[in-house]
Amino acid sequence: MNGISTEKFVIDQKLDYKIKRIRQMNNSHYKECMGLMLKRALTSIFLFLFKSALGLKGKERYSMISHSKKYAMIGVIIA
User: Fold this and answer.
1) Which of 16, 28, 35, 70 is the most buried (most CB within 10 A)?
2) CB within 8 A of 5, min separation 6: which ones?
């Protein structure tokens, strides 16, 4: 596995653990659980975009990385 795949796997494991704990605690934590699931999905999307941007050159790479960072920040704010 390359570095990005390993990083995504570790992030997914941590978020899965948090989601399971929240679900076990109480259903009143539904919003927090949904936020974590959204964060996990957006992290996956961000890492995919970042990985695909590494194959591009020059200005294309910069614009792809800046767009993926912007969407990741929007996702974090929403979550």
Assistant:
1) 35
2) none
